[in-house]
């Protein structure tokens, strides 16, 4: 797809639409000097080159990649209109696109009924789910795994809810017996499970958590901000059986958060929250003296905590899902490439004399560290940070990795014979979320091995 051609088409469609209204005069106050504009624009694009190359497979660090060209074109076409999906007054066309796209996300999660909407981020989406959790189970607390996203504790603080941290097993997944002990205290109203933790890509066993939570009358919220789209691979041989079961069990949960700006090929500003019970709409009830007038249909702002929200984000997602639908062959093929790359890299790391695999990848996040002799946390820590630094600073063939901090006990759970001379260590972490990582993998591995050889 030619990005320029579709951007041009978007601008053309917008201009044609504006010409369908009566002609009006432009105001001189809006005019900018062409030369000054060119200079400022050059400065802008020059400064943007100070970014890391998120588009390139040599960037194998954080959960970052550019949006799909289709999403960019759809976003631009709608951004020119600049609709606001808070109310049908502001986004009559894009609100309907949002409902359609959200319906597809709900179907992917397996929800039979749903109430949901897009948000500006996963954090906001989780805040809404926790708000509904608080209203549904007043006075009770939240249980989230030690590997859950840090924003849960922050959002619970904001909502005045107590949080219990649940221990994890030796692959970073919520420990079910530990959860049961906590549920038995009667203090937990909501369990937050994560299908795809941000550091390790670990998938909590939702299929085991749900029946247990139900037994104790607790709700289950799934934070699938990063991992939700892997539901498309739930039945695939690329996915471990228990991981597939956990992803499919999202269908039985009370709420699910999925970030299209993570694995849905969207630009930032696109999270989503889904509730299984449409009746939770009662917790959002409010009135506004200046909106909600153009339609008796429910407005998205009536079921969300945010007010103004980008209609373009909905349009971009809607267009993307038209072309890469939420099927194994559609968007699933994009995720499968990253997953295959992660599995293959794990094999290469396992066989490498210079690198060790930290734990087998469950989705597309690979964690590893330089092999050190003697094996000690302080050496692993130093060498990992050194590899990241040298990779980024290399004049030729730079490679961009990220690090994650892991505790000494967590490390010992996976690698018994390492000397715990620190209470935590940094290890290397690569999110292989671009399908381009698959054909590039051998080069990436070779480069990282080379760096590790020099750093260990
Ligand atoms: C990224 C992420 C979040 C936060 O989402 P934002 O869109 O960055 O606000 C929450 N939970 C998980 C599991 C994530 O990976």
From TrEMBL:
InterPro entries reported in the protein's UniProt record: GrpII_AminoAcid_Decarb, PyrdxlP-dep_de-COase, PyrdxlP-dep_Trfase, PyrdxlP-dep_Trfase_major
UniProt cofactor(s): pyridoxal 5'-phosphate
Highest taxon in the source lineage: Bacteria
BP terms from Gene Ontology: carboxylic acid metabolic process
GO molecular function (one): aromatic-L-amino-acid decarboxylase activity
Pfam families linked to this entry: Pyridoxal_deC (PF00282)
Keywords of this entry: Aminotransferase, Lyase, Pyridoxal phosphate, Transferase
UniProt-listed Gene3D superfamilies: Type I PLP-dependent aspartate aminotransferase-like (Major domain)
Modified residues (N6-(pyridoxal phosphate)lysine): 262
Family as reported in the entry's similarity comment: Belongs to the group II decarboxylase family.
Protein name from the UniProt record: Aminotransferase class V-fold PLP-dependent enzyme
Protein source organism: Streptomyces morookaense
């Amino acid at each position: 797809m030619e990005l320029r051609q579709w951007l041009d088409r978007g601008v053309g469609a917008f201009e044609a639409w504006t010409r369908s209204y009566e002609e009006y005069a432009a105001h001189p106050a809006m005019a900018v000097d062409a030369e000054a504009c060119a200079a400022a624009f050059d400065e802008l694009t020059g400064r943007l080159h100070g970014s890391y190359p998120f588009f390139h497979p040599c960037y194998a660090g954080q959960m970052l990649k550019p949006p799909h060209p289709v999403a960019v074109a759809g976003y631009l076409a709608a951004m020119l209109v600049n609709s606001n999906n808070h109310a049908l007054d502001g986004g009559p066309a894009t609100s309907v696109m949002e409902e359609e796209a959200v319906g597809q996300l709900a179907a992917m999660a397996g929800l039979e009924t749903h109430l949901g909407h897009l948000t500006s981020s996963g954090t906001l989406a989780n805040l809404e789910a926790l708000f509904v959790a608080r209203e549904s189970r007043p006075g009770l607390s939240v249980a989230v795994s030690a590997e859950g996203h840090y924003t849960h504790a922050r959002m619970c603080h904001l909502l005045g809810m107590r949080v219990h941290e649940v221990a994890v097993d030796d692959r970073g997944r919520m420990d079910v017996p530990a959860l049961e002990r906590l549920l038995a205290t009667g203090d937990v109203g909501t369990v937050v499970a994560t299908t795809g933790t941000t550091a390790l890509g670990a998938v909590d066993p939702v299929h085991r958590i749900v029946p247990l939570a139900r037994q104790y009358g607790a709700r289950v919220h799934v934070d699938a901000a990063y991992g939700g789209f892997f539901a498309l691979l739930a039945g695939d041989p690329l996915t471990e059986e228990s991981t597939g079961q956990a992803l499919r069990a999202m269908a039985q949960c009370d709420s699910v958060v999925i970030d299209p700006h993570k694995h849905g090929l969207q630009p930032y500003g696109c999270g989503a929250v889904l509730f299984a019970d449409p009746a939770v709409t009662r917790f959002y009830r409010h009135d506004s003296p200046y909106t909600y007038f153009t339609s008796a249909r429910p407005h998205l702002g009536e079921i969300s905590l945010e007010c103004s929200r980008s209609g373009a984000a909905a349009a971009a997602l809607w267009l993307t899902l038209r072309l890469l639908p939420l099927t194994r062959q559609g968007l699933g093929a994009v995720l499968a490439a990253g997953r295959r790359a992660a599995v293959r890299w794990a094999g290469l790391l396992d066989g490498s004399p210079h690198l060790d695999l930290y734990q087998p990848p469950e989705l597309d996040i690979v964690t590893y560290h330089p092999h050190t002799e003697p094996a000690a946390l302080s050496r692993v820590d130093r060498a990992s940070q050194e590899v990241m630094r040298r990779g980024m600073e290399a004049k030729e063939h730079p490679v961009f990795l990220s690090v994650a901090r892991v505790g000494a006990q967590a490390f010992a759970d996976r690698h018994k014979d390492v000397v715990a001379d620190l209470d935590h260590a940094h290890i290397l972490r690569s999110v292989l979320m671009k399908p381009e990582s698959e054909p590039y993998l051998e080069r990436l591995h070779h480069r990282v091995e080379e760096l590790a050889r020099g750093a260990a």
